[in-house]
Amino acid sequence: MSLLGSLVRKVRRSRRVKLTLLLAPPLAFLAIWFYAPFIITGLYSLDMITRAREIVFTPSLKYYERILGWRSGLTIMLRSLYFGALTTAICLLISYPLAYYISFKVKKHKDVLIVLFIIPFWVSFLLRTYAFMTLLDERSFINNILLSLGLIQQPLQLLYTDVAVITVMVYDYMLFMVLPLYANLEKLDKSLLEASSTLGAGPVSTFFRVTLPLSMPGILAGSLLVFIPAVGEFVVPALVGGPNNFMIGNLIYQIFLGARHWWIGSALSILFIAMILVLAIIYLKKVGSVGPSF
Amino acid sequence: MYSVELDNIVKRFGNVAAVDNVSLKIRENEFFSLLGPSGCGKTTTLRIIAGLEEPDSGVVRLHGQDVTDVPTHKRNIGMVFQHLALFPHMNVFENVAFGLKMRKVPKNEIKDRVKAILEVVDLSGMEARRINQLSGGQQQRVALARALVTEPSVLLLDEPLGALDLKIRQHMMVELKNIQRRVGTTFIYVTHDQTEAMTMSDRIAIMKDGRLQQVGTPTEVYFKPMSAFVASFIGEAINLIRGRIQDGILTTQDLGQPILVNHGENSSEAYLAVRPEIISIDNELEGLDNILDGIVRDVIFKGSYIEYRVEVGPRVFVVHQHSRALMQRNFTVGERVKIGWRRNEGAIIPSSGV
Amino acid sequence: MKKTNLFLMIFTVFVFIFLYAPMVIMVIFSFNEAKSLGVFTAFSLKWYEKIFTNTEVWVALYNSVWVGAVVTAVSIVLGMMMALAVTRFSFVGKPILDALILIPIIIPEITEALSLLVMYVFLNIPLGPLTVIIGHAAFDVAFVTVVLRARMAGYDRTVEEAARTLGANELQTFFRITLPVMYPAILAAGLLAFTLSFDDLIKTLFTTGPGFKTLPLIVWSSAARGGVSPDLNALSTFAISISLLFAVFRIRAEKKMRGV
Question: Which domains does chain B have, with CATH numbers?
Fold first, then answer.
């Protein structure tokens, strides 16, 4: 065995070399096209990029200060959190009974029901939102029926309201609540419920003392999966809401492409991302890993 | 020339030495087993022979040639894996033909050789079957055919029967031995099951904690264990008596009388190992070198034999007697008996094996 | 007890109506003769005729498909490399890598899209199909990695060792064993990547250049401009049928994978 030959073989069989070859291209791609943009956004938010697109090394927090002292901006941020929380709560209230029913009460064709539930979510987010617009429109089929039945005198103004924004978000995001809940309830050992009832607990106390506590991981997972995208929602308020129902996503959009103030827009983006990441980290610490379940 | 030689092989995983200075010489056309409890390093040793693991130090030789740095695919070996590792996307023919294709054998020849080897393993006409259409035993045979068709110089088998149920396993043991005789290749067989190793092997290597304990024929390792570990690992039960050996006499505090053993080295500390079936039991015994008085404490009927536990002073001896003896005489719990054996029927475990 | 069950059943039925009604009504009214969204007068294909004779729709469909195809290819290759690295090697910093892969999935899409736009403008990169493809792929790579990795976790690597003992070198093993065995998982991940790209609105909206439109962009701009209209119903119905078709392919690929 020549020394050179065995060296070449060592390199060829070296796991480190292989690992580097495998990891370098995807990581470089992510670094350049996913992470670098955020760094540039960060530089803008710290006032380190001038109008002439030159980098200056005099960071300043003035845009963050400006945002925090900006009333209508803060109103919109708070509204986003509020809308996000409300959407999550309503999703939970609708999804829990549904998941509970399918998991506990349905005997045959459970899978069919779940697939039937998932099918509408195969349709893209935008198209689902648009489809819901056709119901909310004042010339819509529903308004027409209500009018002809004489239940209302004038067509209901449903579009461009808070109700519309929340309803459509619930419609769009329900999947993310139902799937983790259902997976959790399915895993739950049903004999625990029987054990509870043999110990003298009625169905109500069994539910509140056994089922509900055991399904907390599912509830938490679903809540995070709904809350994070809901807070950052952009399409729904833009299509079925008006300026009075705008959320943080719409605000960022307005500042960037309407006002063209990239510095404030960047600061707002960074604040928003930080908020989401903090939420996600708190969640991951509490619950463990999130697996996208579809 | 030896088929496989291992010289001082060491392989560490982290701080644990999975294989600790193992040297072996495996002969041509030998059915050789590596036997030991899980985690003893037997599979790692096999994988080092295959080139699937690189030893930290030591040399691997196949037919006298140093292959330590040769990658797996150039070693001309065959291997049957624990979970078979049949290619799920190929049918029986494609699975078996794979190794020949890699060796660029002409198409016609591939056909003939696959056909021939499928006959050997008794799977003729199954070429087009998909893997998941086969029974466990058939899959086993496909794996074997796939590994044998390239006519490897050594066939490595990593607990290939582990997944099968008992009946098929017993059948496959006989089958494997027959196939080995027919193809005339060195088989190296890894198992934790001593029955498999005993049934098929010409020689057995027993491993523990990465070290070789003993290499020998099945009868050697059974009747002449070289360490306390081998003695208790092999076989169902063994009586181990610890004591001092001087001029063919073992003295121990447990027993009131000296025990006669084979003449050999003197040793201040050694074991005498006596298999239960070697010991005779009766009310009166004569003509044996060692005869002890005892009381029967347990009688367990095991089918082809009976197990007696006989108390002798503070010790309990396990004695096996052929069931046929039941026709004449059986002993009951509490009965006074004598047990005995000849001095040359016990094995002395040297102090190095204690 | 019986009453609760009945209540739950009725509740479930209502949820299903809630889920399906918007799309069913939209599909029905896309076949309406009249322009009305409230009264169905007669069956007609005229709105379909209108959209299918509109070259802008065809161009957008073509753009969506080829962008989706390129994005799929890029994200499968890169995602596969990453998934292989993560599942087959142990190295320090794996938790960091996990986080780097997970972050693109968690971060709100709009901030991602706008940041990318900021960088494009900052670096003077002209906006167009290429910038759209990059935008989609940057996200899809992470997604494909997560999906492939979950699938690879159950993959038995001894088939590769078996191939090595039979004389296959590393490349032969990869192309004849690894890829074919993983093919259904790759197909499923690929279809998912394609769907993500095909349906994407936000990143396309911010990273596209003048004149380059995809199907979701057309739906978006006419819905944002003019609200609900029958021809948009027809276009959406058409797009929905494409989405469903792909979903069926994906499910089939996954079923096939489980069969192996």
Answer: 2-228 (3.40.50.300), 236-353 (2.40.50.100)
With CB atoms and an 8 Å threshold, state whether C38 touches A272.
Answer: no
What residues of chain B lie within 8 A of the CB of A6, using their CB? Answer: 69
Q: Are residues A224 and A117 in the same domain?
A: yes
What are B297's two structure tokens? 């404490």
Dist CA A69 CA A33 (whole Å):
33
Q: What is the mean pLDDT of residues A174-186?
A: 93
- Segment A247-266 shows an average pLDDT of 91
The Cα–Cα gap between B274 and B292 comes to 14
Q: Assign residue A176 the CATH number of its domain.
A: 1.10.3720.10
Above 0.95 for ipTM, yes or no? no
Q: How many CA atoms lie within 13 A of B82 on its CB side?
A: 14
- Shortest Cα distance from B70 to chain A (angstroms)? 9
CB contact under 8 A, A1 and B69: yes
What the block records as the tokens of C66 is 């080829």
Tell me if A128 sits within 8 A of C23, measured CB to CB. yes
C62-227 has which fold?
Answer: MetI-like fold (1.10.3720)
Integer Cα distance of C206 and C134 in angstroms:
12
Instruction: Answer yes or no: is A103 within a domain.
Output: yes
Strand-pair category, B239-246 with B267-274: antiparallel
What letters, b where the CB count within 10 A reaches 16 and e where it falls short, cover C25-47? bbbebbbbeeeebbeeeeeeeeb
DSSP A153: S
CA–CA dist C4, A227 (Å, integer): 29
* pLDDT average, residue stretch A231-241: 91
